[in-house]
């Protein structure tokens, strides 16, 4: 099935005239008939060898000794005549360092000596313009090659300049340059590299259909596409959500006798994985072997990542084993994705097996893999396995960082062992790592759990002394612990502190305060805070709705969809029918009268 081309009018590639803002004259002050049509940002600063910058060409550049003797003491050389190779070496040297002033001197000397200018000399300078982020200067020099230097332009020099423009991300300008030279001047015939560059520029510009059109013109111009042409166009089609066209292009490619490479399959597998079509992606992997094309690391990593994101961990692990048996090395992202996925599924032990298998094959796990596994093991109640893994990590010479220490501290606190966790905090600080808000929040929660609220408060004060920035989570832990411990006055003090800092309490903090107020018999205050919680946490949802549906004057929103289900369940309130909001979305108008009374009656009954 041939891929579809654009049905509408192809984009017009007009040249437009905007004066150059650059003051850096390169090789000639004569205006360029091509470059004057292309608009770009001002020429960037060029660097001297000493690191200083200038908006103009480098002037204090020390050229090689030979340049001084040739240009200033040529009489001492007697009858020696400089050859083309000498000038080429000088151009190569100065181009390497971006010394455009010296390059200008070399070209002027060649003109005085009536030397023949070779195209390869200009290609060196074009590349230097690319490195110096000066595409306009490359275009200007290209335009003067024939008239000023009597050097014939070919597709080689044209492609060199075109590549410079594309490397700068000036895709529209690249299309204009192509249109001017190929379609208007008609003195150069494009080759396969030209088409590859143009298809890349069109795809990057979002004109994928135009790229397909250009691809279809290649046979007419007696230019056969190569594997890079197909790969570039497939990538553009995939990113344009035209997966079927990209897959069809693979079949067409093989019919035309162009053998796909691993990179070709990788583009399609990546596109299918992003679309969620993992079955076809896996089938493509099998087809690679049938076509005699061996998958590489990128192939496996891409498919494994896609399987993990879809929760198909068993297939991902199986594919990982297959990858390792083919002596291919997964990257950190692949291992991290598999381990993280297993932990999320409550399979931290399987994650440890993956990590061990990985290290047996000589691949060293990083700190983030250990952190995810240690956290997962603690959450699954496997504290002994978590501590064993910690010991193995130390034995293997993998130094724990703040992330791993924090995971261990959090796990021990969840096990009701905050004092042991505090020992690791001291160890962490002694080896030079700084505890963060998560580390302290875990410890504070741990001490509250064992009834040591005074110690928890001391840790919070210690945070401030050590310049550790607290956050909403830390305050939420404090408020929850104090309210649970019956210290409503202290909790209210922390609450005011949170609001004074401009922070927004989360649902845990709100529900803890509401619970504390109601336990103290302050039902009215608890209900007021409940209404405030609804307003604060639901107003962003309302604002989005008003922007999306500006003519609708009233909205009914299930509060559970506003992320409040957890907060309400903590209050044993599982159902509040609806809330009505006015169009402006700035505040809730009111909860329906019957609902308000029903909610109040429920709360009073709960906290009698």
Automatic annotation (TrEMBL):
SUPFAM superfamilies: HCP-like, Thioredoxin-like. It holds the Pfam family PPR_2. PROSITE patterns: PPR (PS51375). Residues 537-604 form the Thioredoxin domain. Keywords: Repeat. The keyword Repeat applies. Residues 29-58 are annotated as: Disordered. One of its GO terms (biological process) is response to stress. The keyword Lipoprotein does not apply. Residues 29-39 have a biased composition (Polar residues). Gene3D superfamilies: Glutaredoxin (3.40.30.10), Tetratricopeptide repeat domain (1.25.40.10). PPR repeats lie at residues 191-225, 226-260, 261-295, 296-330, 331-365, 366-400, 401-435, 436-470, 471-505, 506-540. NCBIfam families: PPR. Belongs to the PPR family. P subfamily. This is Pentatricopeptide repeat-containing protein. It comes from Sesamum radiatum (Black benniseed).
């Amino acid at each position: 099935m041939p891929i579809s081309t654009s049905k509408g009018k192809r984009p017009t590639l007009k040249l437009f005239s905007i004066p150059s803002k650059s003051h850096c004259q390169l090789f000639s002050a004569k205006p360029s008939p091509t470059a004057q049509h292309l608009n770009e940002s001002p020429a960037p600063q060029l660097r001297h060898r000493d690191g200083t910058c200038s908006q103009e060409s480098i002037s204090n550049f020390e050229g090689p000794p030979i340049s001084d003797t040739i240009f200033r003491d040529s009489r001492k050389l007697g009858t020696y005549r400089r050859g083309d190779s000498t000038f080429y070496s000088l151009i190569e040297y100065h181009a390497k360092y971006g010394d455009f002033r010296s390059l200008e001197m070399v070209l002027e000397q060649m003109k005085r000596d009536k030397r023949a200018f070779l195209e390869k000399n200009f290609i060196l300078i074009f590349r230097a313009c690319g490195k110096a982020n000066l595409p306009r200067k490359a275009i200007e020099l290209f335009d003067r090659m024939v008239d000023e230097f009597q050097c014939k332009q070919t597709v080689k020099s044209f492609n060199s300049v075109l590549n410079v423009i594309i490397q700068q991300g000036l895709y529209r300008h690249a299309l204009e340059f192509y249109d001017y030279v190929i379609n208007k001047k008609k003195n150069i015939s494009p080759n396969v590299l030209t088409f590859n560059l143009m298809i890349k520029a069109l795809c990057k510009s979002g004109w994928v259909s135009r790229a397909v059109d250009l691809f279809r013109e290649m046979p007419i111009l007696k230019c056969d596409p190569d594997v890079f042409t197909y790969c570039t166009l497939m990538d553009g089609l995939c990113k344009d959500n035209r997966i079927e066209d990209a897959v069809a292009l693979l079949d067409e490619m093989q019919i035309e006798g162009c053998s796909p490479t691993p990179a070709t399959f990788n583009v399609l597998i990546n596109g299918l994985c992003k679309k969620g079509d993992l079955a076809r992606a896996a089938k493509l992997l099998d087809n690679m072997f049938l076509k005699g094309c061996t998958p590489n690391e990128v192939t496996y990593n891409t498919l494994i990542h896609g399987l993990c994101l879809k929760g198909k961990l068993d297939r991902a692990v199986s594919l990982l084993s297959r990858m390792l048996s083919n002596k291919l090395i997964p990257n950190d992202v692949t291992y991290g994705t598999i381990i993280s996925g297993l932990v999320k599924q409550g399979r931290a032990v399987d994650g440890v097996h993956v990590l061990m298998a990985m290290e047996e094959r000589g691949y060293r796990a990083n700190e983030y893999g250990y952190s995810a596994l240690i956290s997962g093991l603690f959450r699954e109640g496997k504290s002994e396995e978590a501590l064993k893994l910690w010991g193995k990590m130390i034995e293997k010479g993998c130094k724990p960082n703040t992330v791993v220490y924090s995971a261990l501290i959090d796990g021990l606190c969840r096990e009701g062992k905050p004092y042991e966790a505090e020992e690791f905090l001291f160890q962490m600080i002694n080896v030079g790592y700084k505890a963060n808000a998560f580390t302290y929040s875990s410890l504070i929660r741990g001490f509250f759990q064992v009834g040591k609220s005074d110690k928890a408060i001391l840790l919070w004060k210690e945070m401030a002394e050590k310049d550790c920035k607290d956050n909403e989570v830390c305050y939420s832990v404090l408020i929850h612990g104090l309210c649970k411990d019956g210290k409503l006055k202290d909790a209210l003090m922390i609450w005011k502190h949170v609001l004074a800092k401009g922070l927004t309490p989360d649902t845990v903090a709100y529900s803890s305060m509401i619970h504390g107020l109601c336990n103290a018999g302050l039902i009215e205050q608890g209900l007021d805070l409940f209404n405030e919680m609804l307003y604060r946490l639901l107003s962003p949802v309302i604002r989005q709705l008003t922007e999306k549906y500006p003519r609708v004057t009233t909205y009914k929103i299930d509060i559970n969809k506003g992320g409040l289900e957890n907060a309400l369940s903590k209050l044993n309130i599982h159902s509040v029918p609806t809330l009505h909001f006015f169009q402006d979305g700035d505040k809730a108008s009111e909860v329906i009268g019957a609902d308000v009374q029903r909610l109040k009656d429920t709360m009073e009954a709960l906290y009698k």
